[in-house]
Structure formats: structure tokens, C-alpha cells
Specification:
With 1475 residues, the chain is α+β, with helices and mostly antiparallel strands. The protein contains 34 helices and 58 strands. Strands 13, 25, 27, 29, 31, 34, 39, 41, 43, 45 and 46 form an 11-stranded antiparallel sheet that branches. Strands 15, 17, 18, 20, 22, 23 and 24 form a 7-stranded mixed sheet that branches.
Length: 1475
């Protein structure tokens, strides 16, 4: 809002001042031109009186005039043209800007530099934190101001440039100065000549312009004397003559030019003319890039009366007493110093700086004494000439009005009626007829009243002026002379406001009526505008901002965009200055003002308005409003060639989540590209700027080191390794880390590294990015960048590549400190892949994978991406459109327009949260995934699996081949493979004999090592093997397997194929088995010690067989061959295969045993058909005899019972491999369960050796391997599949299974059946097999264990015939054999008494009696066998069970006696017959 140093009263006084014409001779003009000034320009700064003036009113009352100002102008005989006036006003507004250079920096780095008051303010986003704080701040502050010098300059020029009219006399000339130089030959004649010229101009019909106040115009004769020329006596004599002719009050001698133009140049004389003359020299400046403006000629511009009243320094800047505007964020101090960032100079200084090159000094020949002489001249003219003339004229007019006797509408009668209350009802404006064309003759009494009122107003006699205006108003209204009435109303309102002491309130309705009359009836917008400007100032001074805003808005119309823009801007400032500031109304009207400024061609002002309004709309979620404002700011900035600002404004439109339609977004994007291209053309060699589109999700950036995965070719399947197509899985990542750690520990002779860090091939937001990743020379680095297109229109990125910085370093040399940085150049160091086209559809998220190829070692820093941003080709192509007008029309030629720029990849690391300081503050760690270190050459292993199956039967053995290839540039060695499932595969033991290498032969050749069985014996064939041969020896990790490469080295480019046997896992289902291949370079590197290759094999297994085995002690204490202790092994094999697998039948071809202590000897129940065949759901039972080994103690003894024609040597690869690996897996599983249970339960008491000895009697260490063949029909071909199942027998009499028990039963029974079992009581005996065995043994051994401690056997005749008719008692000898199975001495008690609980049992038919001792006591040494001769007595024939003796045993060094029951052994039946 226009806040001036002047008050409203001073502004109104200075708006209407007495006008004095000046008529100068040519010689007089020459005298003043020495100072580069005309006569009127010379005296302009001195036209305000510094002292009070006195005059008397018609009633002879003394009237004091303060601060009177007069205006002296050259006589112009042609009225100014409307076009010239509009041009002048437009130029005045154009050159008046907030500060030079301010608008050029409106937008910087996403913030706005706003200039709402006269200083630059930095406003952030959003520009104020909350509405409440702002409103409170506005309410608590006392006064706000925002100077709008362009509005003040416009208002001043507008009031000065108003042409004089007949309905008012305020801008008519009151007097005329006739100026003649003393150097003229005949000055008096020249005065006479000028006087006649003035008379002719005023009274001749040839000149209708300018207007004169009264016919008898005051003429004041001025003699101008050039002191530098001397001849003062001549000047004085001429002046004396003038005084004689014109009187002392009608002439004046003005002496100037006391200083010569060529001397005293170094003397500093103030220049009070510059601030006045700059308004009239607009045509010498070129403030716009749009081109220079030219104004009307100097002669015409002299007519425009500049208003003074500010003093020399008051226009240089805002008064220091004013506070800054509420919309500013950074309130500067009250000292008035400006913010030094963007604000350059105050207004006048700005103009001086603009004109510094062409501005000529003024008053160079004048001294300060000359200044005082000019000031004295004006005072003399006013005191002695002008005011007496006006006083005399007022008296004459008053006398004329009073002397008219019959005039009822005279001044005093009208005044009397007004104050007596007899007011005539006034008609509204709408009721009046359109009589604006009515003209009064010059002598009309109504005009005389108006003339008297204007004269009184000019000399500040406001009370008398108001009375006269009021009287004239009534007369004009009665005559329906609306133009005259409106003028009287206007000035009556101003006079009422300016009356000292404010005897009456300001009649705002007078102004409203005048404005409506001017605008609607008289159709004179200039006069209406003057009313609005005057009344708004009055209302604002009374803090009636709402009424002032309504008044200003009321006059906005389509006929003048400049006027509408200025008034709307002032209305906006009214809203912000209200008691409760209306911030949104302010912003809305600033937008309207900016729009009208734009239409008026005031681009800078339009841009400023939009930027100020943006403060309010920004960050409030009004995206469409923001888009409109930013779009307009962009266009206006582009028009003003502020291209950086234009780019930034369009960038704001694009980066916000736009709610615009697709077509509108496309238009925004094309405008942005067009503007951006203009910017880049200005500085083609400058740095690449940041592009706003598409969005980049930096945290989702992934970096992959290495080549892309090899594609599978036919039967060759490449190792899956790791690729960007795989999703991150934290569990899998941890598994791979564990595997690598195992391999590294194995390579370091079993010691784990304390500073072990896993190899990371793919870095993402989940990986540990705190370390610098390692890349290898000549191996690509792939960066996956996540782009998102937020727009509804597609984006086309072309020539997309990575932006990088590289520091070459030689890590082998001792001094690697000499580095140099290379950015985006040096293709011999880093090669970059360029994606020629990358299309992103609307609102699409798309990944771009960009590669770098390092050719040297060093430190690489990936900075970002660089690309050309464009849109796809449109179907509508406009022909013949000049690109320069594209922006104005809003239509672009879709010619593949694109601009080049960059976006940086800045990844924020994880938040630190370990120390107290980090927890209490917000700190982030580093993320170095984009800063790899490039190391020297390393070998690169590729692994291919040939004929690798995807499906296997459980336990099936399949032979496949693995190809190892070194595609690196240096040899590799130390290849190891590590897996969590070592039982799944084997490369063969050290004793393995390679079977045929042809992969196709596996269809007909066995995967086992076989020999043809020549013997028809049923006895087993034995062999031995050491577990260490198969990687399961003591002190090694079976998970880590050394790959048996020839010479242990693979040269660059070399490849080797090795056989690998697979065994289908025992569990049915899909299995993911992870292999980690570990290898090293022959050369040791400082940065990279080893490399790994990952492979995940997916195997689907289907059911095959289930094997259940139980071992029992044989009743025979000695076998036929005298081999000593023996056992019976019962093996149940069931075919649980489903028909879907296409398996026709299973053949059990061989059963092998593996143990250090036992071996299978023979099959007992061999049927006629040697081959055991099992169809679907069939079960077969085998009974095998096992004997204790006598020789091989350290090594494992393998015994094979062959049912077919070929023997599979079970002690070699792959049979033994899989057996040992399976055994190890079972042990590992048991340990893990043991650790779980020991951690859950309390520590059990330590067992004594005795109990342990007893337990060992019931333990066996016998493992059964069932080898089978399956006949499968596939594609009308019969295939033979081979496989093996393992059963581990631990305890005598306890069932063992060929799979993990619980899972195995689930698969056999089905899930529902198993759930039913689980719901039953835990006391069911079946469950005892499935509960994990607690390794802590109870202190008292079970009966089963004691029956194993002492083994009993009865020897007797199976049939015994006795003649009972001869002898009633039959006595049969029975031998009781006792065998000590333990390793300790045992005390035995044999009790022959029948164990009875009731007497009825003695009467049972078939009972018998032992004769002789009823109890025997023996001591058996370790492994001793003892016999006891007994006699059994029978009294009847029949079948009897002799197994009634009870045997009690205890260890010799123990006290407690335990009974060992023989009820579990087979019954000892005897048949007693009669002869």
C-alpha cells in the first residue's frame, strides 16, 4: 500500500496548487541553459514556501497559509493527447521498480526472494509457519507500511497530466511570468512583446488552450541577469526602469550564474533538480529488455506538473520510522538499513545509478547564493504578486455575488438555508437525466461561485471553499448539470476533510456520488479515477481499509489495464493492513493485479505481484493455485529473459504432486523444456543443471558387481549366483554369510577370522553399506536406479548414463598417495554404458540398469545420472509456427524437444543408535554403496551343471557332471564347495574310480561301482573303508568339500568337467539346496582375498521306499560256525511311492551293513525268487543275521548281502559318501536337539560307570544300507533308477527308520492321521520312538537293558516220551546256559520257584516242578558263558513251557539286585508224550 512520508492532508494540498505560466525570451532560455535547465526547471525545486503567508478573506479576517507550493510551467498551446498521457503513465510505472536486480533474483534454489516492502526478504517454504502466528503478529504490531513508489509516481503524474476543463478552475493559470534576459538589446520592448503574446494566447479565439482563471491575469515581469557576463549596472538600470513602468510589486531582478562554467569544477554543489527531472527524462533510459520507450516531446512534457513536497532526501527512501511489512519474514532493525543480499539502492539512488553514464549535471554555474536568490525570488513573487492578486480576485468575486440583488441562490442565502436546516431533498443520481452536456457561459453566477471556491481552496481557505462548493453543488443539481455537480461534490468532500479542527465528518457519500456520476453519466473515467485516488487516501488515513479497498476495486474496468492493476494492488494492501488482516484476500487481489499488469505490458510488476501472492498459497495444499502462479511466474520471467527464474518456476510445477489433467501437465512440461533449452543455449559450456523429472528413489538404488548371469544352454545349466532380478531375503543372506564364513574358516585351517566380512555382490538398502565395496578391473558395475514418473504424460529419457568421478590408484605400489580426479571423462579409465532410449509411461515406476566398466584400479565415486529429458512425439504438429511465439501461444511443436541435465544420487545412511549421544540426536552413518574401490585382476569362476535333474525319488542316486570354467584373467586355486546339505551331493572320495565321462551314458550305466557276483553263496562279501576318505573324519567339516581339480589350479580360459553324484533328500517335497563355491587367486591381493559363487538348486522329491529295522539278540549262544555273539536284524521295506511318479516297481538289489563292530553275515528267510520286488503299497520283510567283527577295529566294515547278479561295492563312492554324509547329518541334527534340551532343562546328575556299563550291553553300532532299483516308464521308455536308504540301529529291540521319524510318519500317515495321533495321550508307546532322546540316562536301568546284561538259554529235547503207566513221574534233564554280555563281573541268582500270586495257579493243568535246588548263586566273568544242569519233573503228558526260571543279576561291585526277566525271549516249549 502506498505509504508516504506525507500525510493525507499534505497529499491533498499538494494535489491542487496555484498554476503560474511562464513565457521566456530566447535570450533568457540561453542563460538558464548554461545549467542544462530551462527556466521552469530551474525554479522547480524552490517553489515551496518555507514560511507562513498571511492574507485576508472577504470578511477581512486574517487567514494564515502554511507550506504553500506553486507550480510554474511553460505555456503549451496544444492540449495533451490521451495516448500521450497513457504512454507517460505507463512509462512512469515502468521505470519505478522496487530495486534494481531484485526481480532478477526472485527465485533461488526453491525459495522466493520477495519484495513486499522496499527491501528484499528471503522466504522459505512455506513462508510462514502458521496463520495464527502471523495474525497475532499483525495484531500486536502498531503500523505496517509497504511503499509502492510506482503507484505514487503514477498518481503524481496522473494528477499533473489531467487536462484543464471548463467545469472547474483548479488547473487554470492564475498568473503568468514574463522572463527576459538583461543581455538583450531592448529588454523593455521584449517585455512588451511577451505581454502581447500572452494576451493573444489568452484572449484570441485561435487558442483554446491553456485555460486561464480570470480575464485579467496577473503578469509578473522578471529580468534575468547572468552574473558571469558582468554588466550589473546595465541590469540594475533596466530594473529601475521596470519598477517605474510596472511597479515594485510587479517585477523582479533575478541574478544567476555567479560561477563560471569552467572554474570550480571540484566544488561540490548540491543538485536539487535530479529528483524532479528524472520523471521528465524517461525517454533517455532503457529499463526493459523489451526495447526503449519514447515519450512525448520535451515541450509537451514540460506541461506535466511535477509535485514536490518531500524535500531533497525524503524521496530517497522510506522514512526510518516505518516498520517493515507483515509479510516479510526477516524484520530488519528500525535503523532503516537494508538487507544487503539483493536490495541494491533506494529508489532515487537506483535511478541515479541507471543514469550514471548519460546523466548530465545541473546547476553547474550556480552557487549556493544563487540558490538563495531563486528561493527569494519565489517568495517575493508569491508575497507581493500572486497572493495579493488572488486576495483581490476573491474580493471581487464575492462582491459580484453579493451585488446581484435578485439572485436568491447567492452564496450567503444558500449558506443560510443550509445551516437553518431547510434542506431541499436531493435526487439520487439514478433519477437525474443525463445532462452532462449542459454548459454554462463563463459569466454564469454558478461558475463564479465555483471559481471563488477553487481560489479559496488553492489558498487553503477550506471553510469558505466548502461553503461555496456546497452552494454551487445545489445550484448545479437543480439545473441537472451533472458534470459540474460532480465536481462540486468532489471538492466539497475534500474541503470538508481538510478543514482544520474537523468541524464536520468526511462526507464519503459525496465522493461516492461524484464517482458514480463521472463514471456512469459523464463517462469520464479520468475524473472518476481522480476521485477514487483522493477518497482512498482519506479513508486509509482514517483506517477505513475495508471501505478504501471496496472503492479501489469498484473502479477496476476493462478500459485500462494499468489503472486496474494499480488499484487492485492497493486494494490488496488495504486487506493486509486491516485490524484483522485478510491475508488470503490480499493474495487473491495480488493475483488479479498481476494479471492486469501483465495485460498492460508491465511484466516486472506482474512478476512481483505473483511472487508476493505465492507466499500465501505456497505449502497450503492448494496445488492448482500454486501451479497457476508458478506457471505465470515462469512465463513472465521468461519474457523478461530471467531464464533461471523461469526454469525454477516451471520446475516447481513439475516436482509437486500435480492434480492437473494430462493435457495440462504436458503443456507445463513442454514449456519447461522450451525455457530450459533457452537457458542451456546461453551457457552451453556451463555445468549440467539438476533436472526435476523423473523422481529418483535414491534409497532403492542397487549396485551389482560382476557380469550378468550366464544363460542356460541346452543341458548346461549355469550357476544361479546372484542377480538384480532376485529379491532380497534377509534369512537367505544370513545363510550365505554362514556358508562363506565356514569356507573361509576351512581355508584358514579351521580358524574363523575375527574380522570376517562377507563378499557382497549386490548392495541395496538392506545390506551393510558402511564399508567401501570392492570391484574388479574389467568387470562391470551395474547400478539400478529407481525412476518414478509423477506425471500423467510419458517421459522419454535419451542418452542415459551414469555420472562418475575416479581417482586412479596403484594398490601394488608402495606409494599410492598420488591421485588425480577424473570426472565424466577418461574413457580409457572408466567405460560407461549409454541407454539410447528409456521410455517411462504415465505415473510409472521403472528401473534403469546402467553399467560402468573400470579399466584401472582406484577409487570410483558414482555421482548420479545424466540424460536428455524429453517427451514422445505428438501427433499434432504445427507447421509454420515461429518458435519465438511458442511460449505466448502455449502451443509447442512436438519435435522431440529435449534438454540435457543431471540428477545426483544422494543416499542417506542408516540412523545411528548405539551410543547415548546418537540416541539423543539425529545422526546418520555413511552409505558407501556408490563408492567402490576397484582392485586388480581376479580369477572369475563360472560353474555349469550338465544334465542336472529337477526331480528325484527320495534316496535316489543320480550321476551328473559339473563344469568349472575360469573366465578371469589369472589362475584360480583352492576351489571348495560348502553347503548346509552335504548329504545331497558328492564329488567322490579319494578312492573313487571315475565312471565313464560321457553324460549320455548315465541312462544305462550304473552310478555305483559294481562287480559281477560269481558265487551263489548267500553269505555277505565284506570290505572296509576309512571315514576320512569321504571327508567325514575327525577334525574336518563335512559341509566344506574340496573340489578335486586336476593339479588344483584352473588357468584362465580353461575348463574341466567333474562327475557329481546326487542323492534325493529323504523328505518328500521341494528342496532349495544352496551351494557356495569358494576359490582364490594364485596371487595374493591386498584388497580381495577370495571370491565366491552361489548356486541354488531346486529339487522336487517324491516318495520311494520307507525302511524300518529292528535288531534283536539271537537266542543261540553260539552259531554254527562258532563265530561267537550274533544278532538278528529284521528289515521291513515298504513301497510308499505314488503312481504319479511313473514308478512301476522297486527291486531290493542289496542290503549292506556298515559298522566298526558288527557285520551282516547272511539272509535267513530268502525265498525262491532272489530278487525282492515291491509294487505300489507293498511291503517286504527281510531277516538278516549279524555277527560281531573280529578284525577291523578302526575302520568301518562294509558287508554286502547281494540279492541280484551284481554286487555294489558299498565301501566306495558314491554309496559310502552318501552314507557317511547322511550319518553326519543325523549326528548334527541330534546334537542340535541335544543342545536345545540341555539348554531347556536343568543339568542332570552325572551317571556312574556301573549304569553306563549296563547300558552299553543294549547298544549296537550297526548301520543298514538298503540299495534298490526302480523301474520307471517315461515317454514309452523304461528307465532304471537307483537309490539307497540308510537305517541307523542304536539299541537292541528298538525300531529305527530310514528318515527323520516324525516327518517320515507324517508323510506315510498323511497330515490328518498324524494330527489324530498327536492328540492322543503322550503315554502311547509309539510316541516313545519320536520323542528326542535325552542323553541323560536314568539312574536305574530298564528291564530291557538287564535282559541284555545276562543272556539265558535252555537246552532240552523238544519231545520226550515217558511211560507214565510204569512210572508216574517223568524227569527230564535241562541245561541252563548263562552268558555275561557285559564287560564287567556279574553276580547271578537263579530262582527256580514258580512265581505265583494265588494258590489257584498251582492247580493249572500242565504245571511242572523243578527238582533239586530251588536257587543257585553264580559269578560270571566278563563275556563268560556258564551252564547249569537242572531237572524238570512232569506228572502228565502235554506241552510245557520251561521258561520259568527267574534270573537276578547285579554287578559284582554293586549291592542292589535286579531281576532280569526272560518273558520277552522265545518260549521254551517241550512236548511230554506217553509211551
Amino acid at each position: 500500500m502506498a505509504q508516504r512520508v506525507q500525510s493525507a492532508q499534505e497529499f491533498l494540498q499538494d494535489s491542487f496548487v496555484p498554476l503560474v505560466a511562464a513565457l521566456c525570451s530566447e535570450e533568457a532560455e540561453k542563460v538558464t541553459r548554461k545549467n542544462n535547465l530551462g527556466f521552469c526547471e530551474l525554479i522547480k525545486p524552490f517553489c515551496r514556501l518555507t514560511s507562513e503567508v498571511h492574507m485576508r478573506d472577504p470578511n477581512n479576517q486574517l487567514h494564515i497559509i502554511k507550506n504553500l507550493k506553486i507550480a510554474v510551467n511553460n505555456i503549451i498551446t496544444q492540449p495533451p493527447q490521451q495516448g500521450a498521457i497513457r504512454k507517460l503513465l505507463n512509462d512512469v510505472v515502468t521505470v519505478s521498480q522496487p530495486a534494481e536486480g531484485l526481480v532478477a533474483n526472485v527465485i533461488t534454489a526453491g525459495d522466493y526472494d520477495l519484495n513486499i516492502s522496499d527491501r528484499s526478504v528471503k522466504a522459505s517454504v512455506p513462508w510462514y509457519s502458521s496463520w495464527k502466528d502471523t495474525l497475532m503478529g499483525l495484531n500486536t504490531s502498531t503500523f505496517y507500511s509497504a511503499t509502492t513508489p510506482w503507484f505514487e509516481a503514477y498518481r503524481e503524474s496522473f494528477l499533473q497530466s489531467m487536462p484543464s476543463s471548463d467545469h472547474e478552475f483548479l488547473n487554470h493559470y492564475v498568473a503568468c511570468m514574463l522572463v527576459v534576459s538583461s543581455s538583450e538589446p531592448e529588454p523593455v520592448e521584449q517585455f512588451l512583446k511577451l505581454s502581447q503574446e500572452q494576451h493573444q494566447i489568452q484572449h484570441s479565439n485561435e487558442y483554446s488552450y491553456p485555460k486561464w482563471f480570470i480575464p485579467n491575469t496577473l503578469k509578473y515581469y522578471v529580468l534575468l541577469h547572468d552574473v558571469s557576463l558582468g554588466e550589473e549596472q546595465r541590469a540594475d538600470s533596466i530594473y529601475e526602469e521596470m519598477k517605474q513602468r510596472y511597479g515594485t510589486q510587479g517585477c523582479y531582478l533575478l541574478k544567476i550564474n555567479s560561477r563560471g562554467s569552467n572554474r570550480g569544477a571540484d566544488e561540490q554543489i548540491p543538485d536539487p533538480w535530479s529528483q524532479y527531472l528524472q520523471k521528465n527524462t524517461i525517454q533517455t533510459q532503457e529499463p526493459y529488455e523489451d526495447g526503449p520507450y519514447t515519450l512525448i516531446s520535451n515541450k509537451n512534457s514540460d506541461h506535466f506538473i511535477p509535485l514536490d513536497g518531500l524535500g531533497n532526501d525524503s524521496k530517497d527512501g522510506l522514512s526510518n520510522n516505518f516498520k517493515s511489512h507483515p509479510l516479510q519474514l526477516d524484520h530488519t532493525s528500525d535503523s532503516g538499513c537494508f538487507d544487503g543480499t539483493d536490495y541494491v539502492k533506494p529508489n532515487s539512488s537506483m535511478h541515479e545509478s541507471k543514469k550514471s553514464n548519460t546523466w548530465t549535471p545541473h546547476g553547474t554555474c550556480l552557487t549556493l547564493t544563487d540558490h538563495d536568490r531563486i528561493r527569494q525570488f519565489i517568495q517575493e513573487f508569491t508575497f507581493r504578486g500572486l497572493l495579493p492578486h488572488i486576495e483581490k480576485t476573491i474580493r471581487q468575486l464575492n462582491d459580484q455575488l453579493i451585488s446581484r440583488k435578485g439572485l436568491s441562490r447567492s452564496l450567503f442565502s444558500a449558506t443560510k438555508k443550509w445551516f437553518s436546516g431547510s434542506k431541499v431533498p436531493e435526487k439520487s443520481v439514478n433519477e437525474l437525466k443525463s445532462t452532462s452536456g449542459l454548459l454554462y457561459p463563463p459569466e454564469a453566477p454558478e461558475l463564479q461561485i465555483r471559481k471563488m471556491a477553487d481560489l479559496c481552496f488553492l489558498v487553503q481557505h477550506y471553510e469558505l471553499a466548502y461553503n461555496c462548493y456546497h452552494t454551487a453543488k445545489k445550484d448545479f443539481l437543480n439545473d441537472q448539470a451533472m458534470l459540474y455537480a460532480a465536481g462540486a461534490l468532489e471538492m466539497a468532500a475534500v474541503s470538508a476533510f481538510l478543514q482544520p479542527g474537523a468541524p464536520r465528518p468526511y462526507p464519503a457519500h459525496y465522493m461516492d456520488t461524484a464517482i458514480q456520476t463521472y463514471r456512469d453519466i459523464c463517462k469520464n473515467m479520468m475524473l472518476a479515477e481522480r476521485c477514487v485516488l483522493l477518497s482512498a487516501e482519506v479513508l486509509k488515513s482514517q483506517s477505513k481499509y475495508s471501505e478504501a479497498a471496496a472503492l479501489l476495486i469498484r473502479l477496476t474496468s476493462e478500459d485500462s489495464d494499468l489503472r486496474s492493476a494499480l488499484l487492485l494492488e492497493q486494494a490488496a494492501h488495504c486487506f493486509i493492513n486491516m485490524k484483522t488482516p485478510m491475508v488470503r484476500k490480499f493474495a487473491f487481489h495480488m493475483i488479479l493485479a498481476g494479471h492486469r499488469y501483465s495485460k498492460a505490458g508491465q511484466k516486472k510488476h506482474a512478476l512481483r505481484c505473483y511472487c508476493q501472492a505465492m507466499q500465501v498459497y505456497k505449502g497450503k495444499g492448494w496445488s492448482l493455485a500454486e501451479d497457476h502462479i508458478n506457471f505465470t511466474i515462469g512465463r513472465q520471467s521468461f519474457t523478461l529473459r530471467q531464464l533461471d527464474n523461469a526454469v525454477s518456476a516451471f520446475r516447481h510445477i513439475l516436482i509437486n504432486d500435480s492434480k492437473q489433467s494430462a493435457a495440462q501437465q504436458g503443456a507445463f512440461l513442454r514449456e519447461y523444456l522450451y525455457v530450459y533449452r533457452n537457458v542451456s543455449q546461453l551457457s552451453p559450456d556451463g555445468p549440467l543443471p539438476q533436472l526435476p523429472l523423473p523422481y529418483i528413489n535414491s534409497s532403492a538404488t542397487r549396485v551389482f558387481f560382476g557380469h550378468d548371469r550366464q544363460q542356460s544352454e541346452g543341458e548346461k545349466q549355469a550357476a544361479t549366483h546372484i542377480s538384480l532380478d532376485q529379491e532380497y531375503d534377509s534369512e537367505f543372506s544370513y545363510q550365505w554369510k554362514e556358508l562363506e564364513e565356514q569356507a573361509v574358516a576351512a581355508a584358514n585351517k579351521g580358524t574363523a577370522l575375527s574380522n570376517f566380512q562377507p563378499t557382497q555382490y549386490c548392495l541395496n538398502k538392506y545390506s551393510d553399506n558402511s564399508r567401501f565395496p570392492l570391484g574388479v578391473v574389467e568387470e562391470p558395475i551395474t547400478v539400478e536406479v529407481a525412476f518414478r514418473n509423477p506425471l500423467k504424460v510419458p517421459l522419454l529419457l535419451t542418452d542415459l548414463s551414469l555420472l562418475w568421478k575416479f581417482q586412479p590408484k596403484d594398490y601394488n605400489s608402495k606409494n599410492n598417495g598420488d591421485t588425480k580426479e577424473v570426472e565424466t571423462s577418461g574413457k580409457d579409465m572408466i567405460g560407461a554404458e549409454v541407454i539410447p532410449e528409456f521410455l517411462m509411461n504415465s505415473e510409472e515406476t521403472k528401473m534403469a540398469r546402467l553399467k560402468l566398466f573400470p579399466h584401472q584400479t582406484g577409487e570410483l565415486h558414482i555421482l548420479g545420472v545424466v540424460y536428455n529429458l524429453g517427451t514422445i512425439q505428438s501427433t499434432s504438429v504445427l507447421d509454420g509456427v515461429d518458435p519465438s511465439v511458442v511460449l505466448q501461444t502455449g502451443k509447442f511443436i512436438s519435435n522431440g524437444m529435449s534438454v540435457r541435465g543431471r540428477q545426483d544420487l544422494e543416499i542417506q545412511g542408516p540412523r545411528l543408535n548405539s551410543t547415548k549421544e546418537e540416541k539423543t540426536s539425529i545422526k546418520y552413518g555413511p552409505d558407501r554403496r556408490l563408492d567402490p574401490i576397484i582392485t586388480e585382476d581376479m580369477p572369475l569362476l563360472e560353474v555349469f551343471f550338465i544334465n542336472f535333474p529337477t526331480g528325484l525319488l527320495c534316496g535316489e542316486i543320480r550321476k551328473t557332471y559339473v563344469e568349472f570354467m575360469n573366465v578371469g584373467k589369472c589362475p584360480l586355486t583352492g576351489v571348495k564347495v560348502v553347503s548346509k546339505r552335504p548329504e545331497f551331493f558328492t564329488f567322490g572320495g579319494s578312492s573313487a574310480i571315475l565312471t565313464p565321462l560321457s553324460p549320455s551314458a548315465s541312462e544305462h550305466c550304473s552310478a555305483y561301482k559294481t562287480v559281477v557276483k560269481h558265487s551263489t553263496s548267500l553269505y555277505s562279501l565284506t570290505s572296509s573303508a576309512d571315514s576320512s576318505d569321504f571327508g567325514v573324519g575327525t577334525g574336518c567339516q563335512p559341509e566344506v568339500i574340496d573340489v578335486p581339480l586336476p593339479d588344483s589350479v584352473l588357468l584362465p580360459g580353461a575348463s574341466v568337467q567333474l562327475p557329481m553324484w546326487l542323492r534325493g533328500p529323504d523328505e518328500e517335497g521341494v528342496h532349495e539346496i544352496n551351494f557356495l563355491f569358494y576359490y582364490e587367486s594364485i596371487r595374493k591381493h591386498s584388497k580381495m582375498c577370495h571370491r565366491v559363487l552361489r548356486h541354488t538348486a531346486v529339487i522336487c522329491t517324491s516318495r520311494s521306499l520307507t525302511v524300518q529295522a529292528t535288531v534283536y539278540r539271537s537266542n543261540a549262544l553260539e552259531d554254527e560256525k562258532g563265530d561267537g555273539d550274533n544278532m538278528l536284524v529284521f528289515v521291513d521295506v515298504e513301497n510308499i511311492n505314488t503312481s504319479e511318479a511313473g514308478v512301476k516297481e522297486f527291486h531290493i538289489v542289496q542290503v549292506s551293513s556298515n559298522s566298526k563292530n558288527w557285520k551282516l553275515q547272511e539272509s535267513i528267510n530268502l525265498s525262491e525268487d532272489k530278487d525282492i520286488k515291491l509294487a505300489n503299497r507293498e511291503k517286504g520283510k527281510l531277516c538278516l543275521k549279524a555277527v560281531r567283527c573280529k578284525h577291523f577295529v578302526e575302520n568301518y566294515t562294509f558287508a554286502d548281502i547281494v540279492f541280484g547278479s551284481e554286487q555294489i561295492i558299498s565301501s566306495t563312492s558314491p554309496c559310502a559318501d552318501f552314507f557317511f554324509r547322511s550319518l553326519y547329518s543325523d549326528l548334527k541334527r541330534a546334537r542340535s536337539q541335544q543342545s536345545v534340551h540341555t539348554s531347556q532343562g536343568a543339568a542332570k546328575p552325572h551317571l556312574d560307570n556301573a549304569v553306563r556299563l549296563i547300558q552299553k550291553c543294549s547298544e549296537v553300532d550297526l548301520n543298514i544300507i538298503v540299495l534298490w532299483k526302480a523301474y520307471v516308464v517315461e515317454d514309452n521308455k523304461q528307465l532304471i533308477l537307483e537309490g539307497q536308504h540308510h537305517v541307523v540301529l542304536h539299541t537292541v529291540g528298538k525300531e529305527a527308520f530310514s528318515f527323520p521319524q516324525k516327518q517320515g510318519f507324517k508323510k506315510i500317515l498323511g497330515n490328518s492321521d498324524w494330527e489324530d495321533l498327536e492328540q492322543e495321550s503322550s503315554e502311547i508307546g509309539l510316541f516313545n520312538f519320536f520323542r528326542p532322546e535325552n542323553t541323560s540316562v536314568p539312574a536305574r536301568p530298564s528291564l530291557d537293558q538287564f535282559s541284555s546284561l545276562i543272556k539265558t538259554s535252555l537246552h532240552y529235547p523238544e519231545t520226550y516220551n515217558h511211560p507214565f503207566h510204569q512210572k508216574s513221574l517223568c524227569i527230564v534233564p535241562v541245561t541252563l546256559l548263562l552268558s555275561n554280555c557285559s564287560q564287567a563281573d556279574v553276580d547271578v541268582i537263579i530262582d527256580l520257584r514258580h512265581k505265583t500270586t494265588s494258590p489257584e495257579t498251582l492247580e493249572i493243568h500242565g504245571s511242572f516242578t523243578w527238582l533239586g535246588q530251588t536257587q543257585y548263586k553264580l559269578q560270571l566273568k566278563s563275556q563268560e558263558v556258564s551252564s547249569l544242569q537242572l531237572k524238570a519233573c512232569f506228572v502228565h503228558t502235554g506241552v510245557y513251557n520251561l521258561g520259568t526260571p527267574r534270573v537276578f543279576a547285579k554287578l559284582s561291585d554293586q549291592v542292589t539286585l535286579f531281576e532280569t526277566s526272560q518273558q520277552n525271549s522265545m518260549p521254551a516249549l517241550i512236548i511230554i508224550g506217553n509211551v
